[in-house]
Write a structure and sequence with these properties.
heterodimer, A: 198 residues, alpha+beta, 3 helices, B: two-stranded antiparallel sheet, 19 helices, 64% helix
């Protein structure tokens, strides 16, 4: 019995490790806290720079808003390096929901580590009443996730457990509550065991 | 191993799994029940039918009213612990809601009541079984992977009606017919599946007065909870005549020129078996009915929890062979891997890292023209292992 229980506990803790072998992409930037909006339409574009934290950048995901799904115009995403357009992707507003993380995937940029890129979002045919918005935070930084094709399995596994640690420590109250609950249950089961012995 | 240690480890595993596994269904359900606290909505069916804000992403509520009031009431109780961002998270339809800063807190708190019903079933098993069988039963109930997956990974609330169904069965065996009827009615008021087993209670030995009272109470409680909503077309469409409730009758065969539901045919077979062999225990018939549901329909993963308390009884009382159980478990998981929905498999781990959202469904490893055959074979294996268990259970006394 104890062995089986041990297998389950270790299995749950190691599950991410085993599943990671089917992963082909890893995340880089992961800034999801963005609730303010900035609109782009006609000649008004959205521009922001970012630094890629890893090599092999192959997609950028941004949080966009297509209010009441009104916009059905072309949306162009451009990525520039040192002022030159190196990647361009076009999608249609029809495919953007009212608050949605939208992926712009492109050919891999191999030596992207620590390089500064500028991204532009334009939609020349959109008007003010059907404009698409980008979500940004108070500092003007957009909600952004970057994906990179895998270069090292070991780095991926370390990243997964480091993501877990970061996210666990993000919510201190959860950790305290979790620990108190565990201690409480240990106390109750011990009481139960002592009562049985008497 | 001591029972206290079994309980402690069971709780530890649930504390581990609950916050780390996320299926969007738990957020979807809690979005709908949140309107009880935020807007004071009592008729959720009509509200969602007419609400433009949720028309696209939350168009309906498919469960009976008691589910709405119970889960909505619980949400009101824990609101201070959930925090101010919870409502915003509920309305995040972006597909990356698992990346919320407070996701672990939400998942643990929303799944916490399931542990109460889960351990309550464990308690009932201890009360029902002889002393020498308790540890085995507890071990099977608390550590089998189907329970952990259906309740704490998927996060659906089927453990609640499953508890009331098992409680009804337990109270019936103790001849406490009034409370047994009330329990079954309450279970049906969460999800209607307990109504399937009513006839089998009536075939067991008890005074006809007790049986009549039991039926009145069980159906009555269920009916009373539905009464205020019967005039709502949205309620009728989404709950009474929903696609889910009709699904078990969809598999049909032609008999004498008529299309007959396979489920009804085999259900009639179980009724006949009970009439011919009075000694078949009630738990074996309940087990058989639920396994029959899964064998003839495209069932949802969380439905399996309905049968698990009775499968636990079968495991300890009839000694189901290990190979049979392993076959059942493996085919169960294979069925859902072959659904092609990554949120039933790897994407469940998205709260750990968004990387797990990028893994495509495992069905992409199988060529599309072979997929239906593989799915069919897996379903057959599940049906076969269910059949073996059913036969062993029906042969018991």
């Amino acid at each position: 019995m104890k062995i089986y229980i041990g297998i389950i506990i270790i299995g749950v803790l190691l599950l991410p490790f085993f599943i990671s072998f089917s992963v082909k992409k890893t995340t880089g930037l992961n800034l999801t806290d963005a609730s303010e909006k900035i609109y782009f339409y006609e000649d008004k574009m959205f521009k922001k720079t970012f630094i890629s934290p890893k090599n092999n950048l192959n997609s950028v995901v941004l949080k966009l808003k297509n209010a009441a799904l009104r916009n059905q115009e072309q949306v162009i995403f451009r990525m520039l390096e040192e002022g030159k357009v190196i990647r361009e992707e076009k999608i249609n507003g029809y495919n953007i929901k009212d608050e949605d993380w939208v992926r712009f995937a492109f050919e891999v940029v191999p030596n992207s580590y620590q390089k500064e890129f500028e991204m532009e979002l334009v939609s020349p045919n959109s008007k003010i009443n059907n404009a698409i918005a980008v979500y940004i935070n108070n500092s003007g930084i957009p909600g952004i996730i970057t994906y990179h094709t895998l270069s090292s399995r070991k780095e991926l596994i370390l990243q997964i457990y480091s993501d877990l640690y970061k996210r666990l420590t993000q919510d201190g109250w959860f950790l305290i509550f979790w620990f108190v609950l565990l201690v409480f249950v240990y106390f109750i089961t011990s009481l139960f065991a002592n009562a049985k012995r008497k | 191993m001591k029972i206290s240690s079994i309980l402690l480890f069971a709780f530890l595993i649930r504390l581990l799994i609950s916050p780390l596994f996320f299926h969007p269904d738990i957020k979807d359900i809690h979005l709908r029940v949140s309107f009880l606290g935020t807007d004071g909505i009592l008729n959720i069916y009509d509200f969602l039918e007419n609400n433009t804000k949720t028309k696209v992403d939350a168009p309906d509520f498919v469960y009976p009213p008691l589910t709405y009031f119970f889960l909505g009431g619980y949400q009101i109780l824990i609101k201070p612990l959930l925090g101010n961002s919870f409502d915003h998270w509920l309305f995040d339809f972006s597909g990356l809601s698992s990346l919320s800063e407070y996701i672990y807190r939400y998942l643990l708190l929303l799944k916490l009541p399931y542990m109460i019903f889960d351990f309550s079933i464990a308690y009932l098993l201890c009360k029902f079984l002889d002393k020498e069988k308790i540890k085995t039963a507890l071990f099977f109930w608390l550590f089998n992977p189907l329970n952990l997956y259906a309740v704490y990974a998927i996060g659906q609330f089927d453990i609640i009606p499953a508890f009331f169904t098992f409680l009804s069965f337990y109270l019936w065996t103790k001849k406490s017919y009034v409370y047994s009827g009330l329990s079954l009615g309450i279970g049906a008021a969460f999800k209607t599946f307990p109504l399937l087993i009513i006839p089998f209670f009536l075939f067991t030995s008890a005074r006809w007065k007790d049986k009549l009272l039991w039926v009145i109470l069980s159906v009555g409680i269920y009916g009373v909870t539905l009464l205020p909503f019967l005039s709502s077309p949205a309620f009728a469409k989404n709950v009474l005549f929903s696609g889910l409730s009709q699904r078990i009758f969809q598999m049909q065969v032609t008999v004498a020129g008529f299309n007959v539901s396979v489920f009804l045919l085999l259900y009639a077979g179980l009724v006949l078996a009970k009439l011919l062999k009075r000694s078949i225990p009630l738990w074996a018939l309940i087990l058989s009915v639920f396994l029959l549901v899964f064998s003839v329909s495209r069932f949802h993963p969380q439905w399996v929890i309905w049968v698990m308390p009775f499968l636990t009884l079968a495991f300890v009382l009839v000694k189901i062979p290990w190979w049979n159980l392993v076959l059942l478990w493996l085919s169960y998981f294979a069925i859902f891997i072959l659904f092609g929905d990554k949120f039933l498999t790897t994407a469940l781990l998205a709260p750990i890292s968004p990387i797990f959202l990028e893994i495509p469904p495992f069905t992409q490893l199988i060529s599309q023209d072979k997929l239906p055959i593989v799915s069919f074979v897996v379903q057959i294996i599940f049906g076969f292992s269910s059949l073996v268990i059913t036969f062993k259970a029906l042969k018991s006394k």
